[in-house]
Amino acid sequence: MMIHQPLPALSNSTKLLLFAPTFSHKLCRSFSAASPAHEMGSVKHTTPNAYNQRTQERVLEEESPRVSETTLPLKTSQGQAFPMGVSEVENGINFAIFSQHATAVTLCLSLPKREKLDWQDGGMIELPLDPRVNKTGDIWHICIEDLPRSEVLYGYRVDGPRDWHQGHRFDSSIVLIDPYAKLVEGRRHFGDASAKLSKFLGTYEFESLPFDWGDNYKLPNIPEKDLVIYEMNVRAFTVDESSGLDPEIRGSYLAENNFSVFGITLKIPHLLELGINAVELLPVFEFDEMEFQRRRNPRDHMVNTWGYSTINFFSPMSRYAGGGGGPLKASWEFKEMVKALHGAGIEVILDVVYNHTNEADDANPYTTSFRGIDNKVYYMVDGNGQLLNYAGCGTPSALVNCFLFTSLKNFFTSCNVGTYNSLLAIPSTTQRNTLNCNHPVVMELILDSLRHWVVEYHVDGFRFDLASVLCRGTDGSPLNAPPLIRAIAKDAILSRCKIIAEPWDCRGLYLVGKFPNWDRWAEWNGKYRDDLRKFIKGDPGMKGILATRISGSSDLYRVNKRKPYHSINFIIAHDGFTLYDMVSYNYKHNEANGEGGNDGCNDNFSWNCGFEGETDDASIKALRSRQMKNFHLALMVSQGTPMMLMGDEYGHTRYGNNNSYGHDTAINNFQWGQNDVTWHEDNWDNYDSKFLAFTLHDNNGADIYLAFNAHDFFVKVSLPPPPPKRQWFRVVDTNLESPDDIVPEGAAGTGSTYNLSPYSSILLEAK
């Protein structure tokens, strides 16, 4: 394998004439000013993985396009080590990347073409960095004066020691994403199977004007004690056809702040109606939803819709942009979403995954960034250079291991400290990676990422997935005062943020009530979830512990300056049964996941109320409805911070699947429901018709009837019958004089018909 030789030391005035070579490292060329440009014919070649003897990855054949004859003069200089990533400096665009163990780093660029970016099929300019000039400590850097200020795609080839047993995984045949890339370009449309093998590269934007947050914009700054959290998935919230949105924006950031003319879609208004003042978004960092389909495996029919498989920690998920708009549009639309939510008094909390990445394991590596840049720094490895696994995600058996802590936690609690720590330092034998969070370089990457989301995107807080991983040292052993956890708690920029831990990991480090907190960290209270489930389904001996949980879990949080609101109370979360399924299924039904039912938790503390799954039995259905109300009432009256799951407000079902991460279907998608609105209209094709009436249905019978008359004559309306034991009350009639035009409590006396005046509208409520 060819290793690129560094360029000689360059002065600021040195010009390099570079042309676009192919992706293949075998065809890479760099030329001095005296070198002519060469034209190469189309060449077919293969790029086998450097560690092919250890992997089962299939070798992909790519066709290299014809290289352009046009030479590109680029003036380069030494560059600077900070800031990391890409930055605009006085004399050009600066690139800086960390790699302690690399012996060669090559910057790869794809410049914008006249009509469109076509880097997937085009070549890249490659600039080998001279370690004598372009390196400060462990940071490689270069500045380029003549680059465009936007639409440039870039990545790195990194080479170094090939000693697997020392923890190195260098492979210079792969173009890698900059860990500090603020935007990532890849496939444009979510779940596009035709582009499932697409590559990902970083990009940047220095031409656009700053985002306009508005003159009257302000952060909600809701006190922690007043939070009501709604856990939701950006795509799943609006992607279903029942959302009523244009297909181009369904499942996008922009769809979250949609207000339609008649309020039918009820996006932000729906949240406000629920009394929500904070949304907790499932992962919105760039991830590859098609990762399961890159090779044959039991899950190759799945699409990763939850997103717990991060590619990059700075860039918003680009395929959540409307209409396949790409990374820049995704960034802008994310800000629009945050602005709209803040305008409605709703805070934005991000579910962040800093415990592992998308790069999988040594058996089936998916190298996109950290693994190829400096595996030994970014990931935990053992003394033999093998990846350690404390995150437990990946293979089917790993998913089972993720729930072992529930049965082992009591044993761990009873162990002496020495035994406890030695047990918790044993990694899983299943294959996956674990981010080396408390390594100084990785810790700073995480802190920089969090600050970026607060400063650039104005997010209000973070929920840390499997946060106990962040409490482990570089060898995997638990730390009493983890540097990263302390740094987050003490950081000036993050000081206004809500910080929430999922206080366990998949190797038994169960820290509910004991998470290192510096009186700042809140926790997902897993004991609250389990104990409430047990009591309400009728388990004996739970009355006393129920009283403790409802009154704030003082056994867990009455320590130092911790408060009841540091307990995030929840009964349902994204993983596990929905609220409806918890009262409808005794057992998980995960056959659709393709893992033989081995994935997902077996112990759900659920009760099916007498029948497994769907039933027409009215008494069972009534009991299930009561149980769901019991759960929700207990949640909302408990001391602490309540969190509910998207869809539980209407009884969403996944049909017993308690691990639905890979289904981009109605199993996960919010069902706005065809019965939510009844249109009182059979004259849609009448161009001259200027009258429209419809009923918005309420699960509790508080229906709302609306009618709009834009004619210049009266329309006698036949009203639909109100729900049983209710009658219509007039709330609004724009034809009446104030104060009769708007009567919030409603005016009685509405009959079966209503004479609607010209150019007026009415709103009736069933009471």
Q: How would you characterize this protein structure?
A:
The chain has 14 helices and 29 strands. The protein has 767 residues and is an alpha/beta fold. The chain is globular, with a radius of gyration of 29 Å. It has an eight-stranded parallel β-barrel. Helix 10 (526-536) packs across helix 11. This is Isoamylase 3.
Provide a quick synopsis of the model.
This is Isoamylase 3. The chain is an alpha/beta fold and 767 residues long.
Would you identify the regions where 5 or more consecutive residues have pLDDT less than 50? 1-71, 114-121, 259-266, 395-430
| Number of helices, counting only DSSP H or I runs of 4 residues or more | 14
Q: Nearest-angstrom radius of gyration?
A: 29 Å
Instruction: Characterize the overall form.
Output: globular
Oligomer: single chain
Strand order of the largest sheet: 14-15-16-17-18-19-20-21
Mean pLDDT: 85
Number of strands: 29
The span between the termini is 78 Å
The portion of residues forming beta strands comes to 15-25%
Most strands sheet: 8 strands, parallel, barrel
Supply the helix-strand structural class.
Answer: alpha/beta
Helical content (DSSP H or I, runs of 4+): 10-25%
